[in-house]
């Protein structure tokens, strides 16, 4: 009689045998030598900056897109190692109107790129309705 999830049982058995033989998770033995706690991730960007940005945006959900972009810019400024003076920030920081203009232009370009097939993207009628082999259409 075969089990319903035979492949899962085989995978579980092989994992158990690899753990018992000491061939799986061997990196944890080397990490025991270090007194500090294990990091949750080895990617400092995902575990550090991006996670905090996602948390900030999650805590402020409901903002318009322009305000969300501005919040990310301000968060990056507030956590920068050498912040600018207030007068320099006002000169450099984008305004709501400039953010909206950039966002709308990128959004409209993406909508246009998604809606209109470019040269070579569309299906030719002959490719779908071919009565026989025609070597003149076989140019790829």
What are the SSEs and their pairings?
Layout: H1 6-21, H2 27-31, H3 44-59, H4 65-78, H5 86-92, H6 96-115, H7 125-128
Would you give an account of this structure?
The longest helix is centred in the last third of the chain and has 20 residues, at 96-115. The chain has helices at residues 6-21, 27-31, 44-59, 65-78, 86-92, 96-115, 125-128. The chain is mostly helical. The two termini are 51 Å apart.
Short description:
Helix content is 59%, strand content 0%. It is mainly α and 140 residues long.
Which tags fit this structure?
140 residues; mainly alpha; 59% helix; 0% strand; flat
How does the major sheet shape up? Answer: none
Helix content: 55-70%
Average the pLDDT over all residues and give the rounded result.
77
Which sequence of SSEs, written as H and E, runs from N to C? HHHHHHH
How far is it from the N-terminal to the C-terminal residue, by CA? Answer: 51 Å
């Amino acid at each position: 009689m075969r089990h319903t999830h035979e492949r899962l049982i085989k995978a579980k058995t092989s994992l158990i045998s690899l753990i018992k033989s000491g061939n799986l998770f061997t990196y944890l033995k080397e990490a025991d030598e270090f007194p500090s706690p294990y990091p949750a991730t080895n990617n400092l960007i995902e575990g550090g900056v991006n996670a905090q940005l996602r948390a900030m945006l999650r805590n402020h959900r409901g903002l318009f897109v322009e305000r969300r972009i501005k919040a990310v810019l301000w968060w990056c400024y507030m956590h920068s190692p050498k912040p600018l003076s207030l007068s320099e920030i006002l000169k450099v920081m984008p305004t709501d109107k400039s953010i909206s203009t950039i966002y709308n232009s990128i959004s409209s370009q993406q909508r246009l790129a998604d809606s209109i097939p470019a040269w070579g993207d569309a299906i030719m009628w002959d490719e779908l309705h071919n009565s026989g082999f025609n070597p003149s259409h076989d140019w790829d």
